Input
Amino acid sequence: MKRTATPVLAAATALGLAVLAGCGGSGDSGTEGSGSSGSGASEPPPTTVTLVTHDSFAVSDEVLGQFTADTGFEVEILRGGDAGVMVNQAVLTAGNPQGDVLFGVDNTLLSRALEGKVFQPHEAAGLDRVPEELRPAGEAGGEGTVIPVDTGDICVNYDRAWFDEQGVEPPRTLDDLTAPEYRDLLVVENPATSSPGLGFLLGTVAAYGEEGWQDYWQRLAGNGVEVVDGWEQAYYDRFSGSGGGSGGGDRPLVVSYATSPPAEVVYGSDPEPGQAPTGVSTGTCFRQVEYAGLLDGAANPEGGRALLDFLLGEEFQADVPLQMFVHPVREGVPLPEVFTAYGVEIADPYTMDPQAITDGRERWVTEWTDLVLR
Output
């Protein structure tokens, strides 16, 4: 997922076989679930709806079972790697998609999917229960085409034990990360194909502006920042504070999410620690919103529309926090206690207008690549 070539070319190279399999119809070995997609006028209507998503997608069996009970449609899940690669692949197969619904395109990549004509219009039931500031707005924001499903904040996380042992205060802000005491401690994801990596880059552009972000990254590179392909490699292989990782990471700072500490508690050995084993540098965060949409050319548009409506329903939204460790977008859905006890609310994250992302994203990624990787 991580190349200095253009993002679409990179995805084509990395996922050529998967794209060909997707163009050939259903039955891809990467799907989960059961059922078949009918085609042709003489065949019965399809009983399966295929959800194309990223590797981090998760949902409980009970919730999917309820969808099937309510609609009669089985759900097949086709995972396409990191969100950046997933979106690139969807653009390559636009009009002849691998599935019916795509979930996991976020506000950093949405305009790429919209410009690639990946989706067809649909306004899901329940959109009126989503706060106005999270709803798609205008053509650049995907209004009438995609729906918000979850939200979270991309932030630097730190390994509490490492900093306690070293007697060093963890960083709090973006500027802190360039200080000598944090040299060779931070690992980030490549923004060319990783959505958290891109979100972190956009956060620095929002913080320092067109005139200052490149200077910031020169300082960060000079302070020993490490760049890897995607979030899983950064968090599980390189980050020293990951309880579910390889155990060989030597970087106590990583670009992850504000909700990663509650996840460490849920999957850790101590079910009720005094505090989470990892913390969040709250002055480094960029607000992320994930969307879903009906794919143009979907084999089962009826099932796709039903699934999109379901994604905004109370049952799925209540399942989101402990499955994907992000926040639901539907108002009135309570957060689990582990979120309120061990998580942190980011009061003032960096944000960016969708049109600004559309106008600047490709140029910023290219300039970042030349600055940091070459």
Q: What stands out?
A: The chain has a mean pLDDT of 87. The first strand starts at residue 31 and ends at 32.
